[in-house]
Specification:
heterodimer; A: 188 residues; mainly alpha; B: mainly alpha; two-stranded antiparallel ribbon; membrane (chain B); ATP_synth_F0_asu (chain B); ATP synthesis (chain B)
C-alpha cells in the first residue's frame, strides 16, 4: 500500500509541473489540465445516466428474472415434494390395506377350518353312535337267532335219533326214551 | 517510422457543448467512449431477454448481476446491497470501457487520471458521508483498531488516518496506471513490428514475428487486466463501504 502511495505521488506531482509549464499538445495527455473540465462534465453526465439506467431499469429487470426463476424452481420443487408425499401416503395406505386384508383372510381361513373341523367331528360322532346302535341291534339279533337255533337243535336231534334207530332196528322207538337219550347226550 | 505510444491518449474535442467560467466544455473522444460504454451496458442489461431459461445475452447479464451481487455480499454483507446499483455501475462502466479500449484505434476512458480520480473520490465521499450519517461519531472507530497497546495507539491511529485519506489516491492510480502502462506496452511492441519491417525489409518482417507474438500475448494479458482492474476497483469499493457500514472492525 505504502509503495503504491509513494508511486502515485510521483507522477501526479510531475504532472502538475508539466501542466503548469504549458506544454499543450506535445505534453502527456492524461496530465493536460485543459481537458479536465470536459472529461469531468461528460463523466458526470454519462455516469449519472448509467446509474439511473442501472438502478431504475437494468437491475430490477435482471433481478426480477433471476427471482422469477428462483421462485419457479422452488415452486416446482415444492410441487414435486407434495406429489412425492402423496405417493408415499398412497403406498403406505396400500400396504396397511394389504396387511389388513391378509389378517382378515387368515381369520376367515381359521374360522372356516375350525367350523369344518367341528362339523366333521359332530358328523363322525353321530355316525359312530349310529354304528354302535346298529352293532348292538345286530348282536341282539344274533343272540336271539342263536337261542332259537339252539332250541331247535334238540328237536332235530331227537327226530334224527328216532329215524336212525328205526333204520337200524326197524322198530319205532318210544318218543320218551329217545328224548331222554338226546337230553343225556346233549348234557354229556 | 516513429512510434508515438502517447498519441492514443490524446483528448480530441469533437464539438463544443458550452463554457463554464473560462473552461470550454467539449464533447470529446473520451465522452464518445463513455457514451459507447453506457450504450453497451444498457444494451446488455435491457435488450437481453428475461426468459426462464436464459439465452446467451441474458446469461451474460445475469452472470454480471450475480457476480457483483455475490462480491458485495461476501465483502460488505447483506447491508452492502444498498450500494448494489453504485457498485454495479462502477464495475460495468470500468470493465466495458477497458475492454472497448483494447480494440485498436479506440480510446480508453480509464487511462486518464482525472476520470479514475473522479470515480475514486465518488467512492471516498460516499463512504465518508454514509459512514457519518449511519454511525455518527462511532464512524471514527475505524481509525482505532482493537487490541493495540495504548503506547503505540497514536502511531497506529496516525497510520490509519493517513491510509484512509490516501485511499482515493491508490484507488484511482491503480486503475489509471494499469491501463496506461498496458496500452503503452501494447503500442510499443506493435510499433516494433512495423518499424522492423519498414527499416530492414524482408529480414525485418521476419524478425517482426517475435514482437507480433508478444503483442498477441500482451493483448490477451490486457483483456485479463481490463477485467481484473474493474473487479479490483469494485471490490475495494465494497471493502471501503464495509468500513462505513460496520465501523467496529
Amino acid at each position: 500500500m505504502a509503495e503504491s502511495h509513494g508511486g502515485a505521488k510521483g507522477p501526479a506531482a510531475g504532472a502538475h509541473t508539466e501542466a503548469d509549464g504549458g506544454h499543450h499538445g506535445g505534453g502527456f495527455p492524461p496530465f493536460e489540465s485543459s481537458s479536465f473540465a470536459s472529461q469531468l462534465v461528460s463523466l458526470a453526465i454519462f455516469f449519472v445516466l448509467l446509474y439511473v439506467i442501472v438502478s431504475k431499469l437494468a437491475l430490477p429487470r435482471i433481478g426480477g428474472a433471476i427471482e422469477a426463476r428462483q421462485n419457479k424452481i422452488e415452486g416446482d420443487l415444492a410441487e414435486a415434494q407434495k406429489l412425492k408425499d402423496q405417493s408415499d401416503a398412497a403406498l403406505k395406505a396400500y400396504e396397511s390395506e394389504l396387511a389388513a386384508a391378509r389378517t382378515r383372510a387368515q381369520a376367515i381361513g381359521n374360522e372356516s377350518r375350525d367350523k369344518a373341523n367341528a362339523q366333521a367331528d359332530a358328523e363322525r360322532k353321530a355316525l359312530e353312535e349310529q354304528l354302535a346302535a346298529k352293532l348292538a341291534g345286530a348282536e341282539k339279533t344274533i343272540a336271539s337267532t342263536r337261542a332259537a337255533a339252539m332250541s331247535n337243535v334238540r328237536g332235530i336231534a331227537a327226530d334224527a335219533a328216532g329215524q336212525i334207530v328205526q333204520q337200524l332196528t326197524g322198530v319205532v322207538p318210544d318218543a320218551a326214551s329217545v328224548n331222554a337219550a338226546v337230553d343225556a347226550s346233549l348234557k354229556g | 517510422m516513429k512510434i508515438d505510444p502517447i498519441h492514443q491518449f490524446n483528448i480530441e474535442p469533437l464539438f463544443t457543448l458550452g463554457h463554464i467560467g473560462n473552461h470550454t466544455i467539449a464533447f470529446t473522444n473520451s465522452s464518445l467512449y463513455m457514451l459507447v460504454a453506457v450504450a453497451i451496458i444498457s444494451l446488455l442489461m435491457l435488450a437481453s431477454g428475461t426468459q426462464l431459461v436464459p439465452g446467451r445475452l441474458q446469461s451474460v447479464a445475469e452472470i454480471s448481476y450475480e457476480f457483483v451481487a455475490s462480491t458485495i455480499r461476501s465483502t460488505a454483507g447483506a447491508e452492502g446491497m444498498k450500494f448494489f446499483p453504485l457498485i454495479f455501475s462502477l464495475f460495468m462502466f470500468i470493465c466495458v470501457s477497458n475492454l472497448v479500449g483494447i480494440i485498436p484505434y479506440t480510446f480508453t476512458v480509464s487511462s486518464h487520471l482525472i476520470v479514475t480520480a473522479a470515480l475514486a473520490l465518488l467512492v471516498f465521499f460516499t463512504v465518508l458521508i454514509y459512514g457519518l450519517y449511519k454511525n455518527g461519531l462511532k464512524f471514527f472507530k475505524i481509525f482505532v483498531p482493537h487490541g493495540v497497546p495504548i503506547y503505540i495507539l497514536p502511531l497506529v491511529m496516525f497510520i490509519e488516518i493517513l491510509s484512509f485519506f490516501l485511499r482515493p489516491v491508490s484507488h484511482s492510480v491503480r486503475l489509471f496506471a494499469n491501463m496506461l502502462a498496458g496500452h503503452i506496452a501494447l503500442k510499443v511492441f506493435a510499433g516494433f513490428v512495423a518499424m522492423l519491417g519498414f527499416s530492414l525489409g524482408a529480414i525485418g518482417w521476419i524478425g517482426g514475428v517475435l514482437p507480433l507474438a508478444l503483442t498477441v500475448a500482451l493483448t490477451s494479458l490486457e483483456i485479463l487486466v481490463a477485467f481484473l482492474q474493474a473487479y479490483v476497483f469494485a471490490i475495494l469499493t465494497c471493502i471501503y463501504l464495509n468500513d462505513a457500514i460496520h465501523p467496529g472492525h
